[in-house]
Amino acid sequence: MKKMTSQEVRQMFLDFFQSKGHTIEPSVSLVPVNDPTLLWINSGVATLKKYFDGSVIPENPRITNAQKAIRTNDIENVGKTARHHTMFEMLGNFSIGDYFRTEAIAWGFELLTSPEWFDFPAEKLYMTYYPDDKDSYNRWIEVGVKPDHLIPIEDNFWEIGAGPSGPDTEIFFDRGEAFDPENIGIKLVAEDIENDRYIEIWNIVLSQFNADPSVPRSEYKELPHKNIDTGMGLERMVAVIQGAHTNFETDLFMPIIRQIEQLSGKTYDPYGDNMSFKVIADHIRSLSFAIGDGALPGNEGRGYVLRRLLRRAVMHGRKLGINDTFLYKLVKIVGEIMASYYPEVLEKRDFIEKIVKREEETFARTIDAGSKMFDEVIAKLKADNKTTLAGSDIFKLYDTYGFPVELTEELAEDAGFSIDHAGFEAAMTAQQERARAAVVKGGSMNKQSEVLTALQDSSAFSYTEKHLSSELIAIVQDDKRVKTAKGQAQVIFAQTPFYAEMGGQVADHGVIKDAAGDVVANVTDVQKAPNGQPLHAVEILTELFEGETYTLAIDEKRRNGIIKNHTATHLLHAALHNVLGNHATQAGSLNEVDFLRFDFTHFAAVTADELSEIERQVNEEIWHAIDVLTVETDVATAKEMGAMALFGEKYGKVVRVVTIGDYSIELCGGTHVANTSEIGLFKIVKEEGIGSGTRRILALTGQKAFEAFKEQEDILKHVQALVKSPQAAQTVAKVENLQLELKTAQKEIESLSAKMASAQSDEIFKNVQTANGTSFIAAKVTANDAGALRNLADIWKQKNSSDILVLAAQIGEKANLLVASNTKTRKAGDLVKALAPFIDGRGGGKPDLAMAGGTKPAGIAELLAHVGENL
């Protein structure tokens, strides 16, 4: 077996499959593009779903990749096990309806055992297979695997709901008896016993059925195009090749661990208690790559995952004695380790470090808050003479403040308390179930359409024509190809002026006319067929016939609105870079007829001044009347030209480069105006956050932008009239003066309320009653607002007139209730809840002060009469 670096292992895998006719697809962003079913890219095949379900046919049906991935279902296991990671690399080879079991198994065995490649000893390899999959068993025998190295496993069948599924066969490497002290042997694999001897290094999924949950597995139908999907974990493979005790003692992690040693002054022991080193090394990799791909720490979704990873790493840093911000210092070494295949971490190093450091500093303040909570919990336990820290409190410290349970346990034991492990585990399990329920929805692939997949007829889209004559070459109705159709159908023409929805630009609509010029069908949508042809969804008014020539005419008014908005998104993207920074990259867009929507990565709300400057820059480029030029070239040349490519998107051999002067240059397959002046006007109408680290701008162009400005002008004129401002320019000053007058009047009202409260208090506070040993005052008072009730409560506290104060007032058509308490035996919040029903209300508050509102002022007298019996 060859000794290799991680870089060499990755490259050898890709080189092998490239030699077998595979195209190497680059690793894409960890943030899924156009796939709402995934929180993260979590496997090598996740980016290829469109090929497997048949919605897109790849140029080459043989694909190989090294794909970075994130899985965070069980973060708690990182550092505890030898091979658990949140971010990992999956090496894979894929066949989309091309080769199948025969080649996949033979090539897997060749790559692993051939002296030309990895050169593993064949006797060290064991394979599992699905018991009913005799074909795989026989194929392994044919390539030279001994029968006693083949283990049937009932779970070796891959499926996620409806869609592509099939048996899988796994490959394990035997690290020897040194990792099997009880000499259990291959039974460890057969009975799925956790162990360090037999390491799974590769899984070959034979996707050959359309899974149908309504029938037994034995009745699944064969896929029209069978596929191969494999996965080899790079970290595990490198650990085996480098003879590492765990994945962490490889060149993928050890440089990070060495840096942590320097920062902490502690030494990493591969065989000792080194969980904190592993957690930090793993988590900083995930943070560096995810932030580099546009995800940012936050309170929900991906952001919550990153925040949790960072806080967990910081707390483990503290366990190593690192109390200052330090994680950001590890970004550089992560980038250097991965630079040969993932240069983006070093390219975005400054931005990643900035975000990580800022989040660390924020968490430092949160840790102080968590420590305060811990102290309060301990103080309460002491006061109540309890000796155990509740599981719910441990979980809150863990989930809200990032305190690892081990740290909480240490602090509790130092204070002389034990902890409720079972309660913590129950709370943790409940959270994990909620997380899985939120993530695992809709994760299966779509079913393949054999009819659409089989459509090979070529069809060309014309960027220049608005209407043209073209032959109808295919009709699909009810998932069947037909020669003629009425009603709803999908059709393909030899040439079309209709743009198929793509890249955020919505599809063209329009009509289909016959030779006489009569409209015979309406085009309601256009999508790309699996082989790339524009597939028109049509409502047929009469009848359509395959082979006939028709006139296709788009709705030009609709197209004109769309292209104004599309070109404006290019200008907006460039303006965001100029004003906010290069990290503000596109995370999604929608170019509609009446508006544009643009999502982008950014770590804070865009300020009013920034929005104003963005809007100004876009309009300036419109007024400069710049020609919008489009050229076709290859991706490499386009990037040399400086074209901005959307990270995560895949581009063909020929790409279109859209250039707007020296202001914007992007790869784009959409339609655009010929000159920026055609956009007319650009107006931002809304900026908002839509998720952690992702912002959204809604904007208008042309007539719609003018109408938005006109609406604002009308509002200004209305305000001008209300404040009686003779000139529009004086309106702001008039409003400011009115605000000043209002504040002055409010202060006078507050002063009068205080005087009125003081006047009432002398009489009210004389009437002190007693019930169950508690003194109380209960009275109906005159008050203009709730503030007046609070003023009376303040005076009552100063005079210390009784244990309890209950005040009720009718304010307008509503009843208001205030309860104040000077005693621990009766909390104000509890008493207000008991009394509020008398006025058909509800309320709450703190132990010393609570308030309620109700809709039944007539109940005030009855409420006051029942105060004593509620004490």
UniProtKB/TrEMBL annotation:
Family: Belongs to the class-II aminoacyl-tRNA synthetase family.
InterPro entries linked: aa-tRNA-synth_II/BPL/LPL (IPR045864), Ala-tRNA-lgiase_IIc (IPR002318), Ala-tRNA-ligase_IIc_anticod-bd (IPR018162), Ala-tRNA-synth_IIc_core (IPR018165), Ala-tRNA-synth_IIc_N (IPR018164), Ala-tRNA_ligase (IPR050058), Ala_tRNA_ligase_euk/bac (IPR023033), DHHA1_dom (IPR003156)
Main localization, broad class: cytoplasm
Keyword entries, A-Z: Aminoacyl-tRNA synthetase, ATP-binding, Coiled coil, Cytoplasm, Ligase, Metal-binding, Nucleotide-binding, Protein biosynthesis, RNA-binding, tRNA-binding, Zinc
Keyword tRNA-binding applies: yes
One GO molecular-function entry: ATP binding
A GO BP annotation: alanyl-tRNA aminoacylation
Signal peptide annotation: none
Name listed for the protein in its UniProt record: Alanine--tRNA ligase
Cofactor: binding details: Binds 1 zinc ion per subunit.
Record-annotated Alanyl-transfer RNA synthetases family profile domain positions: 4-711
Highest taxon of the lineage: Bacteria
Provenance organism: Pseudolactococcus insecticola
Pfam families to which the protein is assigned, alphabetical: DHHA1 (PF02272), tRNA-synt_2c (PF01411), tRNA_SAD (PF07973)
Cofactor(s) the record lists: Zn(2+)
Endoplasmic reticulum found in the keyword field: no
Entry's EC annotation: 6.1.1.7
CDD domains: AlaRS_core
Described purpose of this protein according to its UniProt entry: Catalyzes the attachment of alanine to tRNA(Ala) in a two-step reaction: alanine is first activated by ATP to form Ala-AMP and then transferred to the acceptor end of tRNA(Ala). Also edits incorrectly charged Ser-tRNA(Ala) and Gly-tRNA(Ala) via its editing domain.
Binding residue positions for Zn(2+): 566, 570, 668, 672
Catalytic activity: tRNA(Ala) + L-alanine + ATP = L-alanyl-tRNA(Ala) + AMP + diphosphate
Gene (name only): alaS
CC per GO annotation: cytosol
Domain notes: Consists of three domains; the N-terminal catalytic domain, the editing domain and the C-terminal C-Ala domain. The editing domain removes incorrectly charged amino acids, while the C-Ala domain, along with tRNA(Ala), serves as a bridge to cooperatively bring together the editing and aminoacylation centers thus stimulating deacylation of misacylated tRNAs.
Class in the EC hierarchy, top level: ligase
Cellular compartment(s): Cytoplasm
